[in-house]
Design a protein that fits this description.
Order of helices and strands: HHHHHHHEEEHHHHH
Structural class: mainly alpha
Largest sheet: 3 strands, antiparallel
Strand order of the largest sheet: 1-2-3
Strand content: under 5%
Oligomer: single chain
Number of strands: 3
Shape: globular
Helix content: 55-70%
Number of helices: 12
Length: 296
């Protein structure tokens, strides 16, 4: 199994994030090791081998959610081998995933988010970072979507941005007043300093968010930004792009947003991906009913 070819496919064709790619790589390497210990290769696996592997995971106390993810990773890898003519049958085809326990949503409180967003100062870097934080929390877009934003994806006057979305599917996302204000400050006061090409300060194909080299902000650069302000806000270890994305969704639901609108805003094609948020929505409805109905 050429893992690097498969990971490259997921990155280039599926547009998966770095964390997702690492998870796939870990899952596949673990099964390759399992098969090697049996004196067999990844391609030799049968449905019985997959079931045996799942049983070993269960015996080791691996959670159902993690086991399901590992099965999904293997299924995708075998599909890739079949697509490229290296395999005639997917050994995971008859393997069913277990129903996972209710997924817990890890998010910040509104007060914690407010504390985080107040950390950047008025320096060139501070105004850039303020805009990054406001956009992440104010729109709920993914880290890779923020990194991929170009100057021409932004329409401040109309109050929206266009992001590439997962799997290359573009969507329009509204910008709130706080995010618009922070972006305005960044474009006016910081971005011209970060741009190295003085004759092309507003080139449409230039990245929106830049590093000190005048180049597109990287994933690693974004994580450093979040870690810095998370530490300053006393939230060390609890800040990531996904946590801000989840906080965006949780706070929307807590304030009355419907699941369909939230699904469109977050760029989820499959309603299954919204299951945890749907559970939160239903829980909130039940709480309101219990507190307000005279016969609850």
């Amino acid at each position: 199994m050429d893992i690097n070819s498969f990971i490259n496919y997921l990155e280039k064709e599926k547009k998966y994030s770095e964390n997702t790619l690492l998870a796939y790589k870990r899952d596949i390497n673990a099964f390759v090791k399992y098969m090697n210990e049996k004196g067999m290769s990844f391609e030799d696996a049968t449905e019985t081998d997959i079931l045996s592997y799942v049983m070993s995971l269960n015996k080791a106390g691996i959670s159902r959610a993690t086991t399901n993810r590992k099965i999904s990773s293997l299924r995708a890898a075998y599909d890739f081998l079949m697509k490229n003519g290296h395999l005639g049958k997917n050994p995971t085809e008859g393997i069913k995933t277990s129903r996972s326990v209710r997924q817990e949503l890890e998010s910040l409180t509104e007060a914690e988010v407010e504390l985080l967003l107040n950390q950047p100062d008025n320096s060139v870097k501070g105004k850039r970072d303020k805009a990054i934080l406001e956009v992440l929390y104010g729109t709920g877009i993914r880290a890779i979507e923020l990194i991929d934003l170009n100057y021409n994806d932004l329409n401040i006057k109309m109050g929206f941005l266009q992001c590439s979305g997962a799997h290359g599917r573009a969507r329009i996302v509204p910008l709130g007043s706080y995010a618009r204000s922070a972006i305005n400050d960044y474009i006016r006061d910081s971005r011209p300093t970060l741009l190295k090409n003085e004759e092309n300060k507003e080139a449409e194909d230039r990245p929106l968010f830049l590093n000190y080299m005048g180049e597109r902000l990287t994933r690693q650069g974004l994580w450093k930004v979040l870690a810095e302000y998370g530490k300053k806000a006393g939230l060390e270890g609890r800040i990531s792009p996904h946590i801000l994305r989840t906080s965006f969704a949780v706070h929307m639901i807590q304030n009355g947003a419907d699941i369909k609108t939230l699904q469109e805003l977050m760029g989820y094609d499959d309603v299954q991906a919204m299951q945890a948020y749907l559970q939160l929505k239903n829980s909130r409805i039940k709480d309101v009913y219990d507190k307000t109905h005279p016969r609850a």
